[in-house]
Amino acid sequence: MAAVATVCSTQTLRFMPTIGLQRTRSKTTSRSLVSIDSEKHWTNLELKKSPASTWVCMSKPEDQEIVPPVPPPDCCNQKETEEVTQVASETAKENATPVEVFQQIGPSKQMNRLIALGSVVFAVGLFVSGRLEGVARPGLSQLSANAVPYEEALANGRPTVVEFYADWCEVCREMAKDVYQVEEEYRDRINFVMLNVDNPKWEPELDEFGVEGIPHFAFLDAKGNEEGNIVGRLPPKFLRENVMALAKGETAVPHSSVVGSFSSADSRQAPQLVGPRSHSEN
Q1: pTM for this structure?
Q2: Of 11, 184, 230, 232, which sits with the fewest C-beta atoms within 10 Å of its C-beta?
């Protein structure tokens, strides 16, 4: 029966052979004395060692060679493995869903980012709403700045809409948006004139057109003849349809002598909330 050399340890150990394994060679028998876990074993087997080996419990016939397992990667390979692991981790973070990313960052960072994002959205909202409001709700000053001078309107051969207004007129301010929209659509075919009732210069025109309440809109044909008028707060379509009729060259407007709620033109005789315009002839 073949002799069996038993090389055992109580558990699988990973160690440098010079630390956990001691081997001495007999001068008389050429056998190796192997000491594992403080137990000595004589064997004829040559144990192959590597810089870092894993020695396991094994029993083999005396004529077989004990070959330790392949050693683990050296320091360089281990560094490459760590780099690959780090790259994989970064890739996983990039491919993570927003919820996963939100869970990976700390609570304080989550709150700071939410606050910063909310502040940006709020600021952009204020800016956009302000720009839209500036476009959608123009004031009387903008209408006056865009207006055609009265004398020019009577001389250029185009139909004309004359609006009598005042800065203190609440209804005038409310209707500014509707007037502006119609002007933008027809300004290339229709003259839009603004006359401020607080300006003494327009006293003759106030009497000529019989202005008693404002806003007062007078619709003139291409020759300067009045075709109709509307006064006060009225549906926007009244103004639009009258302007459309003038643009088509019709001799009459569909809405005339229609009166809505208005501010009395006589208020200009009282102490004025806003003085006459000094920067224009309107």
Answers
A1: 0.50
A2: 11
